[in-house]
Amino acid sequence: MRVGRSSYRAVSWHLESGGVQWVEQRLLPHRFEQVVSRNPEDVAVAIESMQVRGAPTIGATAAYGLALAWKEGKERFNEFWLPRFRATRPTAVNLFHACDVMQLYSEQNPTITQMIERAGAYADAEVMANRKIGACLAEFLAVGERRILTHCNAGWLAAVDWGTATSGIYHLAHAGENPFVWVDETRPRLQGARLTAWELNQEGIDCRIQADGAAAWMMAQGRVDAIVVGADRIAANGDVANKIGTYALSLAAKEHGVPMYVAAPSSTFDPACLKGSNIPIEEREGSELLEMDGMDRAGSIQQIRIAATGVVANNPAFDVTPFGNITAVVSELGVWQP
Ligand SMILES: CSC[C@H]1O[C@H](OP(=O)(O)O)[C@H](O)[C@@H]1O
Question: What positions belong to coiled-coil segments (predicted)?
């Protein structure tokens, strides 16, 4: 059975146990496992440790975690849990958007059931937005030989369900356009090689994993018809924060005349952030560059160290692409072009 889009959600409410359920993305593509917890701290840790990741999924996970935390009372909700979830990761504005939504709703003194329903409505809205994005994006991606390059993972795992950047590819495929996808492996956490390739294989969409450094060369050889990526925060001037490596893609795209699209729901827009240089860029542990999660030949998940020595300079998880480098930003509310 196909695992993924619409058969599962990256995060959801687990009715039987009264807890939050999420796909443990660090185990993919080796194992598909879901975690369930009734402890809001486990949910916060799931965001920090990237068990769940991807801007809309992070937001929905925080919404469910806060609904869970509501059972501890309004004071602890406001004094501890809201700051706790807001501190999990700094760049994806969806996290803060979700916290604001849940905080505003809590001021009506809802029941726990109502808070859970509000979190569910938040997640549903993200999925509906993604479906609208996909339909619009597909029209832009139906160019040339439909050879599309993507970076990191902006599929259903990153966006609760359906996906943002990848939903346009799904639409193309279901329209019989036979897209081919160059999947940047996306060092250091390999969201492309581990997650996007897995999602596309589950959908039967032809794709090839490539080194991040190969992307510009594919464009130079005329083998890329369009680029589509997700986003973690879009500033008021259209500058886009996305996975590290996106800015370099935009430079190569401009050089080689390849259109580059950013797909994001309106919850990723941050009008209070006037320009890209104001976007907080997450700096993660340097060890992520020197270690990898993998599976040995016996089938057990191992963390291997890929460099015995070496001091890591830095490990920014995101970069900022100027709006002028982007062909169009596609959201459920419409298309925004420089
Ligand atoms: C649909 S948002 C996906 C977005 O989030 C990823 O970051 P991370 O895996 O660190 O959460 C990456 O920037 C993707 O483009």
Answer: none
Mean pLDDT in residue range 191-212: 97
Q: Is the pLDDT of residue 259 over 90?
A: yes
pLDDT at 7 > cutoff 80: no
Q: Extract long-range pairs of 301-310: CB within 8 Å, 24+ residues apart.
A: 301/27, 301/30, 301/31
Considering only CA atoms, which residue is closest to atom 12 of ligand 1? 243
Each residue of 109-148: pLDDT tens digit? 999 999 999 999 999 999 999 999 999 999 999 999 999 9
Position 5 confidence tier, pLDDT thresholds 50, 70, 90: low
Q: Which of 221, 223, 142, 144 is nearest to 182 (CA)?
A: 223
Determine if ligand 1 sits within 6 Å of the CB of residue 152: yes
Q: Is the CB of 191 under 6 A from ligand 1?
A: yes
Tokens of 59: 């937001």
pTM: 0.96
Is there an atom of ligand 1 within 6 Å of 203 CB? Answer: no
Please state the separation of Cα 222 from the chain's center in Å. Answer: 28
Could you tell me the distance, in angstroms and rounded to a whole number, from the CA of residue 163 to the centre of ligand 1? 11
Q: What's the ipTM?
A: 0.98
Q: All domains of the chain, ordered by start, with CATH? A: 2-128 (1.20.120.420), 142-336 (3.40.50.10470)
